[in-house]
Write the structure tokens for this entry.
Amino acid sequence: MRPVLIFPPLTDPSQPYSALPALTAFLRERAGFESVQIDANIGFVLDRLNGPKVREAGEKIRQRLEQLDEEPSLAEQQAVEYAFLISAALKGPMVERGIDWAVLGLRDPSVFADLGRLDRCKRLVDEALEIHSAVSYPIRIGFSNATAPDFTDPGELTAYAENTGSNPFIDFLASETLSRIEAATPNLVGISITYRTQVLPAVTLARLIRRRMPGVPVVLGGSIVSRWYDRIEDCPGVFDWCDYLIPFEGESALVALLGALAGERPLDRVPNLVYRENDRIRRNPVAPEEIDALPTPDYRGLPLERYLSPYPVLMLNTSRGCYWGKCHFCSVSPAMRRSYRARSTDLVHDDIVTLNARHGSTCIAFGDDCVAPATLAALARRLRERGPAISWQCEVRFEKALTTALLGELRDAGCVNLIFGLESYDPGVRERMGKGVQQREIDRILDDCRRLGIAFNLQFFFGFPGETRSEAEVTAGLVSREMHGA
């Protein structure tokens, strides 16, 4: 069997995401399938981030401005579009000249030692996407600020997916991605949706596949599909896009589905599967994976040299789910059915050794929702004792157990960056959120990181229900004081 797995646009192009490599490893090593993985995200980004494509977009902007100029007056939305087009048109010539330099710069190690050059490269990339967004107005494309119709109206999403004029993804997916899928002659195509920015391109691609390859089942999975699970009965139109949904974890479920399609078992024996049968939506029982039974993610077949970073950055997980799991705003822990499982330190270390030997990878990003301090301590000890020498980062909580001594051990084991989901610096807001984080630990850990030379990222959001302006200003004050080390 040859399943093809797709990671659609549009999100961060600096590294491959781990969803496809995790599934691919399981399909290849545990089931013996010839799985093919295609990162359409990096393909789309590079297709758009070049001088000729920016120039082509600029010509389309000029033509649209001429059309609007002929109107005797502009409606409100037309006026908004006009302002957007003018802004993009003014930036066009500069971005056209600089975008190829920017893409090369993001792959240049020396750029990351020069924050001024790095900022110029990133700004040119953002402005190039802004120019392309002007062509597809009102659909905006971006790594974090894209717009798309909401899932709760499948009809509207379908209409956008079919609209060749305003759908910025359809041409690329129809020509480049669909051709690669057809060349692989798959017996199933799986599309992994991790971020909301990927929903429209995922639906677009699914409908293209069903039209061009009507005998090939299409499966949607990933964290976004997991969030749809509890309200899927209200949106049967989802199955106008695909044949099956696999929310939550997909390794065993995908193998079981392939077996069911081959007549080896009934569909109702496939874990996690959601499907439509006789106009009724059926949801099979959810089964979590045994995390220690999973193989090392397999990145072979992905274009590691094409990502926008100076070195390949590969993702691993030490766990699935969140060991805290009490934050009231969280959509991640429910997407794992609040099932937290930690992988053994020996296996995580083996994963690192394997990726280092297979790809020469010396940069690892742990994709956990947050890594427990006990796991960090054991992993740091193993890396210091046995190697390999790597640089790594992960997400953590402001825990008392994240002591000064432990932070020093992490640094000595290659930790270069820690990502903290602080959300708010106001104690009252954090208490209402269920964060379980003490003010003194925040201040102490940030001071320790700065003193030890560990970089950090602080994640915030404003507008949690009940947050007042004065409470929000407490967080803004922290940002103004701490940005020099963030």
